[in-house]
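From the shared-data thread, chain only:
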Amino acid sequence: QVQLVESGGGLVQAGGSLRLSCAASGSIFRINAMGWYRQAPGKQRELVAALTRGGSTNYLDSVKGRFTISRASAKNTVYLQMNSLKPEDTAVYYCNANGVLTTTQTGDYWGRGTQVTVSS
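Structure, as tokens:
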């Protein structure tokens, strides 16, 4: 059983910073990519940032230059450093692990989400 546990959300003023963490646990052999999505009320879930096993990154245009995705040396933990936060960044942020190879299967997994609220 693979689990993704997120932490680091909260309330911050515009211009402030937060760092989200996501740790994947279970009998994991390999993860192709990990990333962060967000969903604001009334909007579709969107990809914010992704990091592949090979180190390639991909960012939503509106967060480029402000957000940075990285991983711990253990490689099953990913971070999202969010700087210069704006009210429009307010959303529930979800961690995603793509192409997770375990002892029994390959699949994609989601965390439960963590709320990020940016006040103006």
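The longest strand covers residues 28-39.
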